[in-house]
Amino acid sequence: MRRRNAKYGHIFNLCSTLAHMVHPFGPLHFYAATKHAVSALTDGLRQELTEVNTRIRVTSISPGLVKSNIFKTCLGPDIHETVYKKPSLDPSDVASAIEYALSSPTHVQVNEIVIKPMESLA
């Protein structure tokens, strides 16, 4: 964007609610660490773009569990079925969060949106 001298723009980084906590399930500790890193990189990018006086906004979207085939593909159908017994979001919920940030006035910076199902504890 900067190379093309864009005056306005919006960058979204997809994060996770695990960027804000460490899950008690051991194997997710490293996943949470990567999402903490994405959050920090997003903040750094936002600061850098502000320092050089661009109007490029940077937003982190941190959804909870979202319905997808990731668990089925990576861990098999049994894990997939177990995971999705828990409340989860639809991909359209994440899209709505992005639309919200995009529809904000150009002078408004939406730093972060955290979304999760109403029934979710984590």
TrEMBL record:
Respond yes or no to whether keyword Oxidoreductase is given for this record: yes
Natural source organism: Zootermopsis nevadensis (Dampwood termite)
Q: Which GO terms describe its molecular function?
A: oxidoreductase activity
Q: Gene3D superfamilies recorded for this chain? A: NAD(P)-binding Rossmann-like Domain
Q: Does the keyword Glycosyltransferase apply?
A: no
Q: Name one Pfam family in it.
A: adh_short
Question: Per UniProt, which keywords does this protein have?
Answer: Oxidoreductase
What name has this protein been given in UniProt? Dehydrogenase/reductase SDR family member 11
InterPro entries found in the cross-reference section: NAD(P)-bd_dom_sf, Sc_DH/Rdtase_CS, SDR_fam
